[in-house]
Amino acid sequence: MKTLQFLINMGGPMACILTLLISTLLYSPPITAQKNSTISVGRSLTATTNGSQWFSPSQDFAFGFSRYPNKRNLYILSIWYAKIPDTIIWYANDGNPVPERSVIKITADEGLVLSDPQGNNLWNTSISGVNYGFMNDSGNFVLKQRGNDTPVWQTFAHPTDTLLPGQIMEINGELNSRLSETNYTKGRFQLRLIPDGNMVLNTRDLNSGFVYDSYYTSLTNDTENAGYKVIYNITGDLYIQRKDGSKFNLTLAHKILPPENNYQRVTLNFDGVLTWYYHPRTFTGNNGAGWTAIQSLPDNICLKIIGGLDSGACGFNNICILGKDQRPICQCPQNYSLLNPNDTYGSCKPDFQLGDCKKHDQGEYTIVKLPNTNWPGGGYKRHKPISEEDCKSSCLKDCFCAAAIFDGPDSECYIKRTPLSNGRRDRRTLKTTWLKVGKANDHNNQVNSGLKYKIHPVVRGLLGGSVFLNLILLIAVGLMIFIALNKKHSRDETQTNRITENRNVHCFRYKELKHTTDGFKEEIGRGAFGVVYKGKLTKGGPPLLIAVKKLDRMSNDADREFDSEVNIIGQTHHKNLVRFIGFCKEEDQRLLVYEYMSNSTVADYLFGDLRPSWTARIQIAKGIARGLLYLHEECSRQIIHCDIKPQNILLDEYHNARISDFGLAKLLALNQTHTNTAIRGTKGYVAPEWFRNKPITVKVDVYSFGVLLLEIICCRKNVCMELIEQEGAILTDWAFDCYRINNLASLMNDDMEALSDMIRLQRLVKVALWCTQEDPSLRPTMRTVTQILDGVVEVPDNLPCPTSFSMTEVLA
Predict the structure, then answer these.
(1) Does domain 38-158 have CATH number 2.40.10.340?
(2) What is the side-by-side strand order in the sheet with 589-595?
(3) Which residues have a Cβ under 8 Å from the Cβ of 141 and sit 6 or more positions away?
(4) pTM higher than 0.70, yes or no?
(5) Which of 185, 404, 187 minimizes the C-alpha distance to 310?
(6) Which CATH architecture has domain 328-440?
């Protein structure tokens, strides 16, 4: 070794050759290890608690199934640091978890194929000609062909939320944050290299995918010398490479650490902060204190996000406060609480009724001071010059004012409505917010003190007689009352036991529901068996808005429908079904209690004045399909809904689709495959077998879903009475005609957002037409439908005309 060092010190060509030789020996990965780490076609991994993984030659990285955070028996296909298993740096299937016993396999025709325990395809790389896979020491999993050193597919080309040394991001490349620390699906924040050469950080709408204003821009969009690659080289230096080869450095020079001693990564965190991290390669349980943040973009996200649209770093009405490592902390203001209690970074809702002008006139509001706090943008009034006292007073007097922002140095006052956006609290913020809140309501604390009891004269007389006699009489009266109450309780219990057995549903008293609905005051809908009222539960936790369905048909059939609905919904629990809370069965009263859905029905959403975004419509369609799949195949007893239509699909506060109204549902025993029953459902959505005395199966729901899917695609009703004498009156027929002649533009009525996504549009139209086939056996299952909507299964091209329904049958 001393001789080699002497020759190197001598300089010249020999020194260069020796230096190269030494570098090769020291830094090239062992050839035998690389060969042994090759994963051949046909090999697979299974998602189990102690399942195996595919390691890189150095054992630094592992590829396989990792336990999904806070989810029992669920896993995520991912890559992680083998010595730091909690740090996942890449994940498949859009971050969605998969059940235990799912399998990932390398195939020649599709590359990596992820399937559930039943063998259904969940995700694949869609790459043919694959000979083997390899987990590199860089953290890059690649698929290769024999004799071809260039990967045909690699995880580095499909990043999720993290970049690793050696990774390159091209124009239109992007990172997407997670939804939360423990939810790997796509969140609100993005890092993108856009076509003009700028690297930007921006927020996006979760439902539509619409990109909002950037809160960081690299300014590398020179016309002659724009950026065209983001490079994270093996030394840990992240930079934008310009067209002339020059660098725009993103990593500060003194922040670059020796890669041979440290693991390094750059992650777009779920809260929107891009952070550089390092972790010593050599550590033990005692000194492995975790990752250290060494640099962040932006330096203060609370102040940097100031766009006119979207909520800001935190949700609407929430306040962003900068914490350590330039990470935001979100905090609801006084008298506000989280819309989703599990999401501290989400939106906040007032714990009082804001904008009630009657209460406003009665002095039911007060105003609180929030120093160094601002919600920029969104004001509807401006006063200047004005004193702080007058600014505060102007909000308190204005029925619509939610907050007044006072700018002391400029003597300006901005009056704002809810929702308040881009909230921030910072000592550098020289503004003061005066927030309007409801006054404390002591009514609930005074209820018991206001109760008065009337004493019957006979009882008064008894109390005035002999103590012994009074005692005997009181015991007798008490026994009589106890027996009467016990009989009534036993009768009520007998009525309710058979529909609450083994269920976690609440049995309400009629008086309780009457109180929560303010005497059934606010009607929010009508169904086949009664009226739905809005109410609010306030006992046992934070206030909860509910929808109370009061049945008004008290025939024996209706009573059986009631028992059926409670039994069915009591067994179901899925994010795409309306949550069932409880019921009331008291004497002749029959009521059902559901979680209140704030965004009304899909019918209102689709057929209103404004056309919803294409992305939002697709997400709604996927949600409905998943809900039906659950009813048909995944709950304990198979359920046919029998009345799928846009009026029976509700939207929650996040515009997630929730299937409702199981009053017409048909429950099948486990050993049944079909049933015969009277016609159910709504005209325009009813499958042909209802009219033709054929067995009724889950395929009737598939048919109705196909009609509904076309309505979601086109934003128009299936039967358009205005066109009844013209072409296009029946949407299913019109869709097939347009598909057959390859003229979907006519079908979409200038919906350019959908037409620009033609491949997916064609796929959705085809699956809708497939669902509406006249022969039930030709229709797909809802499992197949969900796979098609997710893009993992193709639709047959040779579709026959969907149905030979006559106009009379459609309108029946």
Answers:
(1) no
(2) 506-507, 580-586, 589-595, 544-551, 530-537, 523-526
(3) 54, 63, 79, 90, 133, 134, 135, 154, 155
(4) no
(5) 187
(6) 3-Layer(bba) Sandwich (3.50)
The answer to whether domain 38-158 and domain 503-596 are alike in fold is no
**Residues ≥6 apart with Cβ < 8 Å to 296:** 273, 274, 275, 276, 325, 326, 327
CB-based contact 789:764 (threshold 8 Å): yes
Determine the Cα angle at 94 with ends 202 and 193, to 5°.
35
Q: Are strands 403-407 and 84-91 parallel, antiparallel or unpaired?
A: unpaired
DSSP for residue 418: S
Asked if the model's pLDDT at residue 669 lies above 50, the reply is: no
List residues with catalytic annotation.
Answer: 643
| Owner of token pair 């109410």 | 535
Greater pLDDT, 33 or 535: 535
Residues 6+ apart with CB under 8 A from 353: 359, 438
Q: Give SS3 for 744.
A: helix
Give the C-alpha separation, 745 to 591, whole Å. 47
Q: Give me the CATH topology for the region 161-298.
A: Agglutinin, subunit A (2.90.10)
For 666-708, the DSSP string reads EE--TT-S-B-----S-TTT--GGGTTT--B-THHHHHHHHHH
Q: Can you tell me the distance from the alpha carbon of 783 to that of 648, in angstroms, rounded to the nearest whole number?
A: 21
Helices (H) and strands (E) in the chain, counts: 20, 46
Please tell me the distance from the alpha carbon of residue 313 to that of residue 321, in angstroms, as a whole number. 10
Alpha-helical runs (H) found in 526-644:
556-570, 602-606, 614-629
| Cα dihedral 662/666/668/674 (nearest 10) | -140
Task: Locate the domains of the chain by residue range.
Answer: 1-36, 38-158, 161-298, 328-440, 503-596, 600-812
600-812 falls under which CATH superfamily? Transferase(Phosphotransferase) domain 1 (1.10.510.10)
CA 460, 461, 467: angle at the middle one, nearest 5?
100
Q: What is the pLDDT of residues 128-162, one digit of tens each?
A: 999 999 999 999 999 998 878 889 999 999 999 99
Q: Comparing C-alpha atoms, which of 738, 790, 724 is closest to residue 763?
A: 790
Q: Using CA atoms, how far apart are residues 664 and 659, in angstroms rounded to an integer?
A: 13
| 104: DSSP letter | E
Burial string for 544-567 (b: 16+ CB within 10 Å, else e) reads: eebbbbbbeeeeeebeebbebbbb
**Beta bridge partners of residue 111, listed in sequence order:** 107
> Taking the domain 503-596, which CATH number applies?
3.30.200.20
The two tokens of residue 581 are: 């809370």
Strand 211-217 and strand 199-204: pairing?
antiparallel
CB 232, CB 266: distance < 8 Å? yes
- Check: CB of residue 712 under 8 Å from CB of residue 606: yes
Average pLDDT over residues 286-295: 75
